């Protein structure tokens, strides 16, 4: 699945559970339906059988793919019905603006700003893209504008590798480099978004420790 499609599925998932009581619905079923629906939205041919196999394997590790029997058809029908439910709960508004296009623009602009040597030796683009994609695992992403998310993922990548933007000073609020891209992004909101991105990795570490 392409990054834009999986990101779309994540946003659908978070938007759905923002509208309902989480305990009333099976999260795995909704997740499977969001994956299938996102494939339709982004014109990526996601086979429902593949979605079923991934869902079944997630719930039953090391099990073989389902045969075309009663369990398979039951899951298939549930995914299709859940897809209709998701669409209704979102009031048929399936338009989603993702931050990826903003990040691409910012990266292209920053490449000329930083110079080829820095760009080729430090994985700024790869890291910022990873931060951006991983942030879609958190429902907190719904609180922020796509361009804000993109610039903060980029900012986190720069901080990770200690890269200083030329002609700027960290302590000078009048020279905040990201205002070139997001003029209304305050310093406090900038740090809030970065903390939300980092929290994704904190929660992942906690889950892995269980």
Textual characterization of the structure:
- With 210 residues, the chain is an all-alpha fold.
- It has 9 helices and no strands.
- The longest helix has 23 residues, at 187-209.
- It is elongated.
- The two termini are 28 Å apart.
Helix content: 55-70%
| Rg, nearest Å | 20 Å
Uncertain spans, ≥5 residues at pLDDT below 50?
Answer: none
Tertiary shape? elongated
Q: What's the number of extended β-strand segments? A: 0
> Taking all residues together, what is the mean pLDDT?
90
Beta-strand residue fraction:
under 5%
First-to-last CA distance: 28 Å
Order of helices and strands: HHHHHHHHH
| Main sheet record | none
How many helical elements? 9
Broad structural category: mainly alpha
């Amino acid at each position: 699945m392409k990054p834009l499609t999986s990101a779309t599925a994540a946003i659908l998932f978070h938007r759905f559970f923002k509208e309902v009581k989480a305990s009333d619905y099976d999260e795995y079923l909704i997740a499977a339906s969001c994956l299938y629906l996102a494939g339709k939205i982004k014109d990526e041919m996601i086979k429902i059988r593949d979605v079923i196999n991934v869902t079944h394997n997630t719930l039953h590790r090391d099990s073989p793919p389902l045969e075309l029997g009663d369990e398979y058809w039951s899951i298939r029908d549930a995914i299709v019905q859940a897809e209709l439910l998701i669409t209704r709960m979102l009031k048929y508004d399936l338009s989603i603006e993702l931050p990826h296009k903003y990040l691409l623009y910012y990266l292209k602009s920053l490449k000329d700003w930083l110079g080829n040597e820095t760009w080729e030796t430090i994985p700024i683009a790869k890291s910022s893209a990873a931060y951006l994609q991983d942030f879609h695992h958190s429902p907190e992403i719904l609180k922020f504008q796509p361009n804000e998310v993109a610039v903060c993922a980029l900012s986190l990548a720069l901080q990770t590798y200690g890269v200083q933007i030329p002609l700027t000073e960290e302590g000078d609020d009048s020279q905040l480099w990201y205002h070139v891209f997001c003029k209304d992004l305050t310093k406090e909101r900038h740090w809030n978004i970065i903390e939300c991105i980092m929290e994704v990795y904190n929660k992942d570490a906690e889950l892995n420790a269980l």
